[in-house]
From TrEMBL:
Residues 1-19 form the signal peptide. Belongs to the glycosyl hydrolase 43 family. It comes from Aureobasidium pullulans (Black yeast). GO terms for biological process: carbohydrate metabolic process. GO terms for molecular function: hydrolase activity, hydrolyzing O-glycosyl compounds. The keyword Signal applies. Keywords: Glycosidase, Hydrolase, Signal. This is Arabinanase/levansucrase/invertase. InterPro entries: Glyco_hydro_43, Glyco_hydro_beta-prop_sf. It comes from the Eukaryota.
C-alpha cells in the first residue's frame, strides 16, 4: 500500500509561470478544514459542510468559487454510527485510487466520532463508496496518512490522559492496511500556552509535509472557536515515528492577522507544474473567533534554506494574488 505524497515535493531550480490571479476566500460559507488537490487539469476541493461529502472542481483556484458541488457521499439512517457530524474530508491517492478520509459519528448524546474512509476511482470526480471505519480506539477525528521510510502510518486527533489531564491530543498508529492500525501511540499533547486558548486545550488537524528529505506534520492548536486558533509543526528527527522523542514541536507558525481569526486546520498541495508548495486553511472574519462562519483560503508557502517551512500570515479578504504556477488559464 502506498500513500501518494500529494502536493508536497517542490522542483528546485525550475522556472515558474504564474497562474491566473485569485483572491480569498475560495469558500465563504461551508469552508472549514479545506482539502485541495490538482489532478489531470483540474483543482478538486472539499471541506466540512457537516451534512455530506461534496467535491467541486475548476481549472483555476478562483474558479472554485463558482464551481457547483457534486455530492459524492451522503449519510443514511440505516447506519446511525456515521450519520451526523460529517467533518474534515481529505482527498488522497492510495494504490492508484482516490480515497476520502473524514470523521463522522452518531446523532445522539454520548455518540463518538470515528475516522471513516470512502473509496473512489482513478479521478477525484469519480463516484465514491463507503469503504470502512478505521479501527482507531474510541474517539478519533481528522485522520490523515503519513509515510516515513516506506512505512505507512495513520495520524489523528484523540483523547489521552498521559499527562494527568484528559486532553485532545495527536495519536499515531502503524498501518497494516488502509483501515487497520496497530497499537495507538501518543504523538503530541497541548502542553504549550498557545495550544490551550479557549474552552479547552486542543491538538487536531494533522497533515504531512515532505520537503528537502525532511518530514513535518502541521497541526492546529487551541479550541477552534477561539480567535487564537493557530498552526504548529512537528518535525520528524529520526528514530521510530511512533515515539514522541522522534518529533520536535514548534509553534505557533501561523496565527490571526490581516483581519482573519481562528486560522488553522490546513492541508498542503503542489502547484500544477510542481515548482511551488501551497497551503489550504480556514479562517473567520469574526474577531471573537468562530468555528462556524469559516472561510476556505489558499496561499503559497516558502521554505528556509534548510527546508524548514515558512507558513507566513493569513491573507486578507479580497487581496488579489498570483495563482499557482502552471495553471492552464495562466
Amino acid at each position: 500500500m502506498f500513500f501518494s505524497k500529494l502536493g508536497l515535493l517542490v522542483l528546485s531550480g525550475a522556472s515558474a509561470v504564474f497562474g491566473a490571479s485569485y483572491s480569498n476566500p475560495l469558500e465563504p460559507k461551508d469552508g472549514g478544514d479545506p482539502s485541495i488537490v490538482w489532478y489531470d487539469g483540474y483543482w478538486y476541493f472539499t471541506a466540512t459542510n457537516y451534512r455530506d461529502i461534496s467535491v467541486r472542481r475548476a481549472t483555476t483556484l478562483d474558479g472554485l468559487k463558482t464551481a457547483l458541488p457534486k455530492t459524492v457521499w451522503a449519510p443514511s439512517a440505516e447506519f446511525p454510527t456515521r450519520q451526523c457530524n460529517i467533518w474534515a474530508p481529505e482527498l488522497h491517492i492510495v494504490d492508484g485510487q482516490w480515497h476520502i478520509y473524514f470523521s463522522a459519528g452518531g446523532c445522539g448524546d454520548g455518540s463518538i466520532q470515528q475516522s471513516q474512509v470512502l473509496r473512489g476511482g482513478e479521478s477525484p470526480w469519480d463516484n465514491f463508496d463507503f469503504h470502512g471505519t478505521v479501527n482507531a480506539p474510541a474517539w478519533s477525528i481528522d485522520g490523515t496518512p503519513l509515510t516515513i521510510n516506506g512505512q505507512n502510518y495513520f495520524v489523528y486527533s484523540c483523547f489521552r490522559s498521559d499527562t494527568g489531564e484528559n486532553l485532545q491530543s495527536l495519536c499515531i498508529g502503524k498501518n497494516s492496511d488502509i483501515l487497520t492500525i496497530g497499537e495507538e501511540h501518543l504523538l503530541a499533547s497541548p502542553t504549550e500556552a498557545w495550544e490551550r486558548n479557549g474552552q479547552m486545550p486542543v491538538n487536531e488537524g494533522p497533515f504531512a509535509l515532505y520537503n528537502n528529505n525532511r518530514t513535518f506534520l502541521s497541526y492546529s492548536g487551541s479550541f477552534c472557536w477561539d480567535p487564537s486558533y493557530s498552526l504548529g509543526l512537528l518535525q520528524y528527527v529520526g528514530g521510530d515515528p511512533l515515539e514522541q522523542s522522534s518529533w520536535v514541536k514548534t509553534g505557533p507558525h501561523f496565527s490571526q492577522a490581516n483581519g482573519m481569526y481562528s486560522t488553522g486546520h490546513n492541508s498542503f498541495f503542489a502547484s500544477p507544474d510542481g515548482t511551488e508548495t501551497w497551503m489550504a486553511y480556514h479562517s473567520s472574519p469574526n474577531p471573537a473567533g468562530s468555528c462556524g462562519d469559516r472561510y476556505s483560503n489558499a496561499k503559497k508557502i516558502d521554505f528556509e534554506a534548510d527546508g524548514f517551512p515558512i507558513l507566513g500570515a493569513p491573507v486578507a479578504e479580497g487581496e488579489v494574488l498570483a495563482g499557482p504556477a502552471g495553471e492552464p488559464a495562466a
